[in-house]
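This follows on from our talk about sequence and fold. I would like you to pick a protein and set down its sequence and fold. Go ahead and set the record down below:
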Amino acid sequence: MITLAVDAMGGDSGLDVTVPGAVAFLKQHADVRLIMVGDQEQLASLLKAAGAPMDKVEIKHASQVVDMDEQPQLALKNKKDSSMRVAINQVKEGAAQAAVSAGNTGALMATARFVLKTIPGIERPAIAKFLPSKGSHTTLMLDLGANVDCTAENLVQFAVIGSELVQALFPQNGRPRVGLLNVGSEDIKGTTTVKQAFKLLKSADLNFIGNIEGNEIFSGEVDVVVADGFVGNIMLKTIEGMVKFMGGAIKQEFQANIFTKMGALAALPALRGFKSKFDPRKFNGAIFLGLRGVVVKSHGGTDAEGFRYALEEAYHEAKADSLVRIEQGVAAQLLVLAEKKQEAENAAMANNIE
């Protein structure tokens, strides 16, 4: 049985979204139970009204709620009984295999990092998300905003945890192909940090395919895209904006006159397929990677269907036992990197002696 802890109060709409999303999720899975964290009276009433299978739900009361615009450090200090904090505590205490929240991103990251700590060998957690790409393939991209300034070592660590997650979720696909997001494919391009990361990644025990450019993210030829949080967040917001713009532009063109409206009827199946493939709700659920626990962040403004997909993301990670695999993979990868570093230092010392 998979148990997920849900911050029921978080997000722009709170209970109006989390409760119906949770109920829809529960009805689709027989092997799952939820710990719904928030105002006990409201939760009990709304869950019952929504027809929730109460034998698969535990309600855990929390007296506080983290506001969407609240400063992360203030939330961490002053909201120790918030629905967000209590949900994450369930993971730390072993009562749940993952926590899901649509709440304040900064507060969620700060709280998750404080409560759960990072995996040994990982300095900073990263925000990761699966994006659609060619065919039925998906590509994991990280970091998407948690770390604006990164060292080369941080980028390598992101590559390791991203690769291990994809390997855990999709073992049938072989070793994940890792690409470093850059302004060109040549190893001489990019910032000093990116060029240093390139050298380190070449020596790591990863399926590193080299630098990739932004137009290759959706090619289906890379499984993990690594970037610092500054570049990654801008890339993500650009993608989201472009999809929204394209959808509106297509709708406007088909509504231009009677002939385009008739064309829209003929193209309706294709348009529905396009809309379904790029429906942002299907890719709702960013993963906080590098923590000693699974935490999934839902978009704060999503609807019940989108929140259900965030729960699905947490469910798949928990079922694949991804955290254990990531921890084991990180330990092995970092050992290889340490050995490579020692070899390089020994070679440099020998050259100096000569």
Q: What stands out?
A: DSSP finds twelve helices and eleven strands in the chain. Residues 30 and 119 are 31 Å apart (CA to CA). The chain has a mean pLDDT of 90. The chain has two domains: 1-117+291-320, 132-281.
